[in-house]
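chain below, 244 aa
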Amino acid sequence: MKRSFAICAVVSATLGLFACGSPPETPAGAEAATDGWVAGPRVDRVVREGNAIVVSGLGARFGRIVLTGPDGVAYAAGADEAGHFDIRLPAPKQDALLAVEAQVGQIAYPAPGRLLVPLDPRGPVALLGIGAPTRRLDPAGPLDAVDTDGRAGFLSGRAGAGAAVAVGRRGGGTVTAGEDGRWTLLVSGDGSEPVQVGDQVFTPPPMVVATDGVLERAGEGWRLGWTGTGGARQVTWFPDRTTP
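prediction:
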């Protein structure tokens, strides 16, 4: 069922080192927005089924979860007793950044950031947040993404839970993956330096030339520039998948 809902504004800032008073916008599902009663939902999985996609995750038990596209069209579903939800919607006809929120009456509780669903099935599926590392949901290699605001940014990837990951780059070193197998490293620069993760080397393309709102092929991967609701801009590069 489709309805149109107003999207609550999220005040965003530049990447962590340059925050200006307000906390940075973080990926949907990383830290849920909450007022003590209702938390923003967390998206864990996106699956294509023919001409449709199914977005799954966790929210408040028996709550209503809403995905809203850039055209203002919304798709909603209710969470079950455990908070699990599945929202089925048509596969996008263009690359889409979707707002994710919980609805209680007329009040919306947004998950910070946006859900990227590409037109091309080979493209990345990810949760993006201004001033925060991207959380990639589709299969990838040891490096999930490079995020930058032109001055600082994040490298992020996946490994075994608790594994030590060697990352070679200015400001790099060894990082430890969390219990979920994800790791993040804060780095300086515009994001265009080569990155070595283990024995693999990744070469990001120039990041400053990204076109806002357009997911495009760039180097051996995909590049997306976008602007948050507070006007802060971030560019993300996703290496091509190296696993099925």
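The two ends are 33 Å apart (CA to CA). DSSP finds no helices and 20 strands in the chain.
thats it, cya
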